[in-house]
Structure formats: C-alpha cells, structure tokens
Amino acid sequence: MRKKVIAFAATLLLPVSLMANSGGENLEPANIDLHDHKSLQNGAKYFVNYCMGCHGLKASRYNRIAKDMGLPVNPKQTGKTGKEADQVADANAKLITENLIFTTDEEGKPSSLGSLMLSSIPPKDAAKWFGAPPPDLSTVGRLRGADWIYNYLKSFYLDPKRPTGVNNTVFKNVGMPHVLWELQGWQKLEEGEHGHHLVLDKPGKLSPEEYDVVVRDLTNFLTYVGEPAQLVRKKYGVFAMILLVIFIGVAYAMKKEFWKDIH
Predict the structure, then answer these.
(1) What are the structural domain ranges in the chain?
(2) Partner of 113 for a Cys bridge, out of 6, 63, 88, 154, CB 3.0 to 4.6 A?
(3) For 93-101, which contacts have Cβ atoms below 8 Å and span 24 or more sequence positions?
(4) What is the average pLDDT value for the chain, to the nearest integer?
C-alpha cells in the first residue's frame, strides 16, 4: 500500500519536476503547424544533419515520415495511378535516400527506407565516450511539448564554467553542447533591469529571424515524431462524434417505439 501511495505522489509531482528542469519561466509560443509539409521536411533535414549524430528516433521509420511529410515512397500512397505513381514514388525515394539517410546497419550497409531512424553512434560506444548514451528523442515532443523544445533550442549561451562551454536558460546545467551554434552564433547572458536576458555576442551564418524559422521547423518535426497519429486523430474524432450523435438519435427513436404503449 505504501509503495502505491509513493508511486501516486510521484505521478502528481512529475509536472512539477519537468517545470523545474525548464526553469519554470514563461515560454514563447512555438506556433507550429503539423500539416505544413515544407516545415516538416525542413525540420527533418536539420534533425538528420545536426542532431542524429547523437540522438535517434527509434520509434520512426524513414518511409513513414516520408509519407507524412508529403513525400510517399509507396506508389499506392502517391495519389497517382499507373506509371505516374511509380515515377513519383521513385523520385521521392531518391530524395529521401540522398538527403536524409546517412546511417548504416550493423553490417555496415546503408540503412534502407524501411529502417528505423537510429543514431549514428552505437549505444555501447556512446556510453563509453559520454558516460551514458544520448537519449532517444522519439517522445520528447510529447514529454516536453513544442514550446519547451522551441525555447530550449534558442536559449544556449556561453558559460566557461560548464564542461561544454555553454549553458541554457531553459534547461539549467544541460550536458548537451550547442550543436546549432554555427547557424545561430554565440549568445551571452547579461543582467538587465528586468533580470537576465540573452544577447547575441557573435553572429552565426543565419540572421535571428532565419534561425527562428530553423528552430520552429525542427520543433515541428520533433513534435510530429512524438505522436504521428495527431495528424489524423482530430479528423477521426469528428467522425466519431458524428457517429455517436446519430447513434443517440437512433437509440432514442427505438426507446420511444418500445415504450409507446406504456407512455
């Protein structure tokens, strides 16, 4: 009984612990659109190029995300028929293979379109090099939420006291380096009238507005990956509600018919 009480209390405190990790501060809205195929494609590109060296998405497959991003590799899913369907599927397959698949399997062969999106680093090697393998990000969108991811990726700043040389205002004392520094540049934390704020110290390849688009697209992709079904579940939910309304009407009519002689 005591263990059950402790487990229940831990469940109640989970949101509080997550808020503690995020600094408990107000987060800027990510304003993502999961139905924006271009944004998802761009987010996938940046994830593969900047994040997948350490983090994997073991709950996702290349061909599934290709379909959901509007680039189906199965002719039956292209919306075309005959030879045109094969041509579109082949073109999409080539696009995904050349731009998103850079990993290999255990035998050293290139990953296929049906492969899981695993990290480039073998877990055993990652544990040896970093002390523990970097976490898989399949469910980070559901665990943290889009706003958290969006603000986290924008909040790295220089901190010589940290082993990686950087810290983060959203996730204090984070162990991850700022892998997007080349795009954003380097920020520093300054004291102002209204508390601490981040200031761009050394610009990167992108302007703040351009970097904001990159982070939003990356956030959009990770949020989608956390629950791919959310692309269609709302539509199915509407159909389910309509079906329930029809069923209630039919059930009420049957009730009236069965009880008409009594009432």
Answers:
(1) 237-263
(2) 63
(3) 93/66, 95/71, 96/62, 96/63, 96/66, 96/71, 99/45, 99/48, 100/44, 100/45, 100/48, 100/62, 101/62
(4) 87
